Amino acid sequence: MTTTTKKYSGTSRLIHWIMAVLILGMIVVGFLMVQDGWSRPVQNTMFISHKNIGVLLLILIFVRLFNRWRNPPNLAPVELDSMQEFAARIAHFGLYALLLVMPLAGYIRVRAGGFPIEALDALGMPTLVPRSEALAEAAKMVHFYGAYAITALVVMHIGAACFHGLVRKDGVFTRMWPPVGKGA
Ligand code: HEM
Ligand code: HEM
Fold first, then answer.
1. Which atom of ligand 2 lies nearest, measured to the CA of 173?
2. For 50-92, how does the pLDDT look when each residue is reduced to its tens digit (9 = 90+)?
3. In a domain, 102, yes or no
4. Closest ligand to 142 CA?
5. Which residues are CB-contacts of 168 (< 8 A; sequence separation ≥ 6)?
6. How confident is the model at residue 1 (pLDDT cuts 50, 70, 90)?
7. Percent of the chain at pLDDT above 90?
8. Is 140 in the pocket of ligand 1 (CB under 6 A)?
9. Quick check: is 181 in a domain?
10. Is 161 within a domain?
11. Peptide bond preceding 116 in cis form (omega within 30 of 0)
12. CA of residue 2 to ligand 2 center, whole Å
C-alpha cells in the first residue's frame, strides 16, 4: 500500500526553495550584466557570480532530479480540474527542462568560447568542451532564447502559486511551503 502525503518531502522543499532564490537571482543578474554602462569591476563581478552560481545550479538540478526519481512525490489530491492539473504538469516539465538546458547551454557557451569559470578552474577541472566559435554561438542562442522562456514560465508559476496560496487557499501552496520543517 502506498501512503499519500500532504506536502512534498523536506528534501524536495529545501531544494526547491534554494533553487528558486538562486534562479531568480540568475535571471535578474543575467539580464542586467549584458546591459551597457556598468563599470568594469561591477560587470566582472556580475559575470563571475552568474557563471559560478550557474554551475552550482547545474549540480543542484542533477541532485534534484535524482532525489525526485528515487523518492517520487505521492501527494494527496487537492481539488483541481483536469485542465489545471494538465497545465501544472506541462509547466513543471518545462521548468525542469529549462533548469537543465540553461546551465548546460551557459557552460558550453563559455567553455567553447574559451572563457574561464573561476571556481572550476581553481579546482583544476578540465573544460570538457572543445574550443569552437560555432558551438559557442549555437549555445549562446539557446541560452538567449531559453532566458526568455524560463522567465515567462517562472512568472506564470509564481502567479499560479500566489493564486493558490492567497485566493483559493486550496492546499497547493502549502505542499511546497515551508522550505524547512513540517509547517502547518
Ligand atoms: C539556471 C541557470 C541560468 C540562468 C537562469 C541564466 C540566465 C541568463 C540570462 C537571463 C541571461 C541574459 C540573457 C542573454 O543575453 O543571454 C544570461 C546571459 C549569460 N549567461 Fe546565463 N543563466 C544560467 C546559467 C549560466 C551558466 C552556468 C553560465 C556559464 C557558466 C552562464 C553564462 C552566461 C553568459 C556568458 C551570458 C551573457 C550572454 C552570452 O554571452 O551568452 N549562464 N543568462
Ligand atoms: C523561481 C524559480 C522556480 C522554479 C524553477 C520552480 C520550479 C518548480 C517545479 C519544477 C515544481 C514541481 C515540483 C515537482 O512536482 O517535482 C515546483 C512546484 C511548486 N512551486 Fe516552484 N519554482 C520556482 C519558484 C517558486 C516560487 C517563487 C513559488 C511561490 C511563490 C513557488 C511555488 C511552488 C509551489 C506551491 C509548488 C507545488 C505545486 C504543486 O504541488 O502542484 N515556486 N516549482
1. 35
2. 999 999 999 999 999 999 999 999 999 898 889 999 999 999 9
3. yes
4. 1
5. none
6. low
7. 92
8. yes
9. no
10. yes
11. no
12. 24
